[in-house]
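--- STAGE predict ---
source: upstream dedup step, 1 unique chain passed
mode: sequence only
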Amino acid sequence: MAIGYRVWSRLHSEEEMTLTGTVALRRMVARCVLTRAENRGLLAFRACGPDLRLLLVGGRDDARELAHRTKLAILRRLRAHPCTFGPTKIDAIVEQWHLQNAFGAMLRRTDPADTHHEASNLPDLLGLRLIGGYTARNVRCHLPRIKRERLLEWFGQADVRPDVSLDDLADSAAAAICRETLTGNSEDRVAARVALAEVVGDRLGSRQLARLAGMGERTVRRLRALPADVDLVRAIQLQMGCRRRGGAAEPPVQRYFAAKTWTKLCAACSVVGVPPAAATRNRSSLSAVVPPP
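--- STAGE serialize ---
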């Protein structure tokens, strides 16, 4: 009897579009997955290039429905681009060791465009983001042998500690709520602006904070009078600490070239300026520029 399922699907597009090409795309994909998977036993997800992978405990119907709902949500947000997802592939997992190995294999996957692993739930497992905090509870329940040290190893840092940095103030807060920007009046954006004002404290005056965070001075004074979410304050501080230490380590290009998957080939092509389709037809044109290890 299966204890979980691994789900995989690929985005197809004439533009050779990926799910991780920009910050906006990565956060959009993460939000589409995490807002639909809270009660479906999600352990991990990873978007890498055009591929979307999910790992969850539960029934096959739950896995199929989550994949379907997530793909529809992503395609709705990409309606300006002609693209579609291929068939959903679902693999059953029947042993605990298989579940643990699948979890590690999914979160170890890397994308050179996603140095902060925003198109996965690693930030949620480490406390850098709140929207997928339930996946940390799921992992503690179903994979108790997975420790923080292992997650940090996959994230590419020895440790992630709270810090306060005046660089990228708005982006740190936006990343903590999985939004592209703080612009807007949604509940989470307002809470993030309040938490950001709490994080900065008296290090900056209202005028300076307003300029750096893209808010009005009167808005800053009003936000400073409101109570902040403690968990969100810590998530923003962890985002700042991550950025101050340079973010997750980006693997070398050769690692991507050595692999034969389309996703990693595209990663190498983007660095050397060779179109992926051309490299697929003539691998020698790419190897002449980036020799395999």
